[in-house]
Amino acid sequence: MTKLSNVKGRITYVSSHAKQENLYAVYETTERKFWRELAKCNQEEFEKSGTEGKCIEARELIIALPESFTEFQPDRLLQLFTNHFKQNYGTECIAALHHNKRKTNYHIHLIFAERKLLDEPIIKIASRNMFYDENGKHVRTKKEILGEDGEIREGCSIVKKGEVYEKKLFTVKEERFKSNSFLDEVKHSYTDLINIYVKDENQKLQVFERGSVYLPTKKIGKNNPKAQEIEADNQKRREWNRAVDMALISGVPEPKIMEVKRKEITEPIRESIVRRGNRPRLFSRVVTVAVEALEFLIASVLFKKPREVSEQTGRTETEHPERVAENIMTAAKVTKEEKAEPEQPKMTRLASKYPKLFKVNKELEDQNGAIQQKQKQLSAKKKELSEVTGWFKGRKKKELQKEIDELKSQIRDMKDYLPRIVQKIGYRSVQDFLKDFKASQTEYSEYRTAIAKWKKETSKEPVAHGIRAKLAEKKQEIQNEQKNKQYTRQNKDRGAR
């Protein structure tokens, strides 16, 4: 989101075919004169406030779209996204749909007003001549705006009787448009809208959450002079994110990861900027230390006995099984004479996904275990290299260093594969997958407990639910119908003989 100090000029620039190589559509929710009046109102209010700097006449959102959206009709696509904003925030907009020169960035420029039109405009007409000095202040007599030569001083003005001396068309600016929370809200809103129309599940978008366990990577623009510096920075951020994935899979609680991030990254960087200014090289060293701290935390968790770990992860599943069963069981209808038999508990949508998610989680754990083994090999090789001394051991050192470099490359590739495992089934990160997996694990356990109680009370076997069960039931019905037809045909044949 950017602030616009010349909204009329910006509108002309983004909506002109002469100025844009790849302009596909322009959509406006109001007439152009609205923006002229809005600019005038903002400038007048800015002058009255006496604030220094530039007057903000409007704001602009730049919305990146997936390249697959080029398949949609541009006019309708732009209308959908613009009306989505106006419906949510009730303010006037003008938007343009563009491509960059190389046609690699499909995007919308959406300009919106921070003020709304009043239901009833306030227009005041002078009942007599009104006089204003150089500062725009109203004075009582004409003498007060005359110079020594008897002429009206420069900058002073007169509003004649019958003319409009004050016109108010707009409300005050909405404060929420200035907040970070508004921008976060818009990001989530448009991300959800985009994901509705994304056909490929793997291409669905996700907003990077503030305060996440991960570190966001920075986008490198075309011909950016700091491209190498930003890429080096991104490499360190990816290194941290890989370590976070391993920590989550290993069972390290998110609050512990956040604590390491805060103590080893956020606070040291903040203090360094205050003391010495922005130093990109320092960031690399800080993240390296943070990754080491997180890996130590992972090792401490994996050192625990398997029984202790399973008790911690499975506590929610076994806690108060009777209470959980009572909550899930459908309340039986009570007649005047007697209670009806309780209905069979139904499996939730998330619980039904548990078997599939369990397999994916097993793949994550196996991959994580393989990485741990590679890291042990790497530690052993590093130790072996440190023990090789002497002038005539150069060849041995080179061989060990080559093996170490190969192991590092293998470990990096293996870590990069972790998020791909969950992306194959539509999740954007390991963190998102594990949240759903743990929830499904809990709901599945609660369902099993409820079914066990139901079987004990009714002495019946549960009937399968869901799409597969319905398909199996339908298949059985078809088979029964075919058998009945065959039996009827045989009877007819017997009668003929």
Textual characterization of the structure:
It is a single chain. The protein is extended. Strands 1-3-5-4-2 form a five-stranded antiparallel beta sheet, sandwiched between helices. α5 (about 225-250) packs parallel to α7 (about 280-300), α12 (about 355-385) runs antiparallel to α13 (about 395-425) and α12 crosses α14 (about 430-460). The protein has 15 helices and ten strands. With about 500 residues, it is of the alpha+beta class. The protein has helices at about 5-15, 30-50, 75-90, 180-195, 225-250, 255-275, 280-300, 305-315, 315-320, 320-330, 350, 355-385, 395-425, 430-460, 465-495, and strands at about 1-5, 25-30, 60-65, 95-100, 105-110, 115-125, 130, 140, 155-160, 165-170. β4 (about 95-100) and β5 form a beta hairpin.
Structural descriptors:
497 residues, alpha+beta, single chain, 11% strand, 10 strands, 15 helices, extended
How do the helices and strands line up, and which of them pair or pack?
Elements: E1 2-4, H1 7-14, E2 23-28, H2 32-49, E3 58-65, H3 74-89, E4 93-99, E5 106-112, E6 117-125, E7 130-132, E8 138-139, E9 157-159, E10 164-170, H4 180-197, H5 227-250, H6 254-276, H7 280-302, H8 306-313, H9 315-318, H10 321-328, H11 349-352, H12 354-387, H13 394-423, H14 430-458, H15 467-496
Antiparallel strand pairs: 1-3, 2-4, 3-5, 4-5, 6-10, 7-8, 7-9
Short overview:
The chain is α+β, with helices and mostly antiparallel strands and 497 residues long. It has helices at residues 7-14, 32-49, 74-89, 180-197, 227-250, 254-276, 280-302, 306-313, 315-318, 321-328, 349-352, 354-387, 394-423, 430-458, 467-496, and strands spanning 2-4, 23-28, 58-65, 93-99, 106-112, 117-125, 130-132, 138-139, 157-159, 164-170.
